[in-house]
Amino acid sequence: MSATLYYFTGTGNSLFITKTIAAQLEDTTLIPINQVKLSKEIFVDTDIVGVIYPTYFLEAPDVVKEFAKRLKVSPKSHLFLYSNYGAMSGNSLYNLYEVFKENGAVVSAAYEVALPDNSIIFPTKPEDQEKMLVEGKMKIEKDAKLIQKRCATKMPQKRVLDKALSSTMKFVNHIYLGMDKIEIVDSKCTNCNICSKVCSSNNIKAAKETPLVGKNCAMCFSCVHYCPQQAIRFKRMKPTENFQYSHPDISLKDIMSTRK
User: Which stretches of 23-120 are assigned E, i.e. beta strand?
Assistant: First the structure.
């Protein structure tokens, strides 16, 4: 049985889910969504097709939604969605379910799991991370067995209040806090260029002195969590001091390999 797993990951949670599911399947291809060219339609007809991604502001990330618009899935394929979240899942699954529905694809199953949040505003406390990781792994392994059997699940329903809350969160984060506008503190930066190597949207470019930052931030926060000098901040906000999260089973090299 063949499988294709598309995933988008910031600091490793989605990649961990993808690898865990892949371990239960045969003849599986793993494809980072940010490496897929979105200028044309993508057709896939493997027995199982999965889209795995994090939850941003109670919704699916924009890059994942744009990808879903261009993905054409064979009617014979078992298409599943799998989102992960820190505190609230919101409409993350429903967003993509609707995109695929409009695209003519049939979603057979939808899963979600709570894992430590890499949010700059509401990060998961270090003392709570271990429990979430253990419980999350158990759920993912259980779900992977259902995916292997091509089991169907209930489809996600729209959460109206979460939609309103998501809009408010986006306004505060984008307009007021400027969390899509990265700044690099020159006095801290050693120009190691790790930030440019882990950026999921190719928004940070290596330079002779301080890396150059563009205007296409996906807010995956990889640069914040992997910067060894904690030299990344945002327009009106500094990340929590000494807080950096990445999934313990996913290495920096793993993250770099998923980038463009």
Answer: 28-32, 42-44, 48-54, 71-73, 78-85, 107-114
CATH of the domain at 193: 3.30.70.20
Q: In this predicted model, what pLDDT tens digit does every residue of 58-105 receive, in sequence order?
A: 899 999 999 999 999 999 999 999 999 998 899 999 999 999 999 999
What's the mean per-residue pLDDT of the chain? 91
Distance of CA 132 to the CA centre of its chain: 17
199 and 81 assigned to the same domain: no
Reported as a single tens digit per residue, the pLDDT across 111-152 is: 999 999 998 877 888 899 999 999 999 999 999 999 999 999
Which pairs count as long-range contacts for 162-169, CB under 8 Å and 24+ apart, including other chains? 162/58, 162/88, 162/90, 162/91, 163/58, 163/90, 163/91, 165/58, 165/90, 166/57, 166/58, 166/59, 166/90, 166/91, 169/57, 169/58
| Number of domains composing the chain | 2
Confidence tier at 177 by pLDDT (50, 70, 90)? low
Boundaries of domain holding 251: 176-258
Same domain, 141 and 180: no
Quick check: is 206 in a domain?
yes
How far is residue 107's CA from residue 150's CA, in Å, rounded to a whole number?
11
Query: For residues 156 and 163, what is the distance between their CA atoms, to the nearest angstrom?
Result: 14
* Structural domain includes residue 167: no
Query: Are 181 and 147 in a shared domain?
Result: no
Domain-terminating residue out of 130, 162, 194: 162
